[in-house]
Amino acid sequence: MTDSHPKDEGPGTESPGHEGHACRQLLAVLPTAPSAPLSVTTLSLPLDNALSLSVSYVADRFLLTRDGFAAYARARTSAMPWDTPLESLAGLVADDLANELVPKWLRVTFVQETPGAPRHVVSVEDRQPGWDHPTILKTLEPGR
Known about the structure:
Helix content is 28%, strand content 26%. With 144 residues, the chain is of the alpha+beta class. It has one domain (21-33, 40-139): GTP cyclohydrolase I, C-terminal domain/NADPH-dependent 7-cyano-7-deazaguanine reductase, N-terminal domain (GTP Cyclohydrolase I, domain 2, 2-Layer Sandwich), CATH 3.30.1130. Strands 2-3-5-6 form a four-stranded antiparallel β-sheet, with helices on one face. The protein has a two-stranded antiparallel sheet with strand order 1-4. The protein is globular.
């Protein structure tokens, strides 16, 4: 999990699709307690009548606030062109959250449900190198 975003060189210098720097500033994070128990946090938000976003993570350094998540999610999705593939959007959100939260494990899921069309679900996962917790990861298997 490294910061793969280009370094800011001033206004208007971000490459297309990297409007995330401004969006990431909306993420409100809190430091974790030094002896915080290992737990999975999940935040979900309907973004419009057909699209929803869910984020699950195992915290390491920071916790995401509900208000920060909502502000970020709305700003990030509204900053993208309407025809941005969900796969691209999920990757950008996962990258933003991995860089800001530095979680042990992270899953970002977008669900698009349009009447008369197949349900479209995209999930992106990331974890810190070498991090493994079989008990927690087993409960997080897709479809459980």
